[in-house]
Design a protein that fits this description.
- By secondary structure, the chain is of the alpha/beta class.
- The chain has one domain: Aminopeptidase (3-Layer(aba) Sandwich).
- Helices cover about 30% and strands about 15% of the residues.
- Strands 1-3-2-4-9-5-8 form a 7-stranded mixed β-sheet, with helices on both faces. It has a two-stranded antiparallel sheet with strand order 6-7.
- Strand 6 and strand 7 form a beta hairpin.
- The longest helix is centred in the middle third of the chain and has 28 residues.
Amino acid sequence: MQRGSIAIENVEIPKEENSDPLWSVTRSQSPIIGTAIHDGSHVRKSLRSRYALNEVERLREEDPFTASLIRGLPNQIVFHRSRFEIDLNRSRDQAVYLRPEQAWGLTVWKENLPQSEHRRSLLIHDDYYEMLRFFLDGIVRYHKHFVLLDVHSYNYRRADPDTPTPQDQAPDVNIGTFSMDRERWVHVVEPLMDHFRSFGVGGRRLDVRENVAFHGKGEQTRFVHEQYPGIGCAIAIEFKKIFMDEWTGQPDNSTLRELREALTSAVPLLERVLRSMS
């Protein structure tokens, strides 16, 4: 993987942080993969006193419970660090939030982040994408095609807890397809959207639309489509935070279970579609 323009040098990791997990991987021989790369809220010890934001403020922009949503998928990658340490879904040069405009107008750091800490975070970005390439190469050895479901969540009560974003601007499930060859993968994307629409949450059908609240412009989907053209289909799935209180962080376990079932039950459909492409 290209390291970019920043020179990478050996970085000594303090002993007390050596055991802090970066990510967890579950591997099967199915071609269907789920990722939750914004699920984590952990930050390394050397950064904790540097944040201008507290844990609750950071949690609002993280994607808690997305690891729970993908729990039933055969292949899973869950990132345990906060996006406020390193955002794996940003390009390398934007993956550490140094300025408010990179972080929803939030001032992330009390003072400028030292270059040594910046480098440590960038190394995690490099390591993740090296791991992801190795992981996907293993999937490709067994299958002609794969589908990666890049699962995220988004706030819809951003102004205050009592003022939701209008439904026409905030579907329950937003499917992002910006970086893919849409024509090639139409037989994957559209059946998946229809599948989600067949599910109900809280007594009503899910509102599922494409490229409304988000367009799927993240780094991970771009990486898949660039590195595995015609082989890998990466779909950015943004669940509106109807499964939790985005201000308190409390989950709605019933809705979580229903959304998890919608994802899990998509696996046979997607595997069948991929077999038909062979």
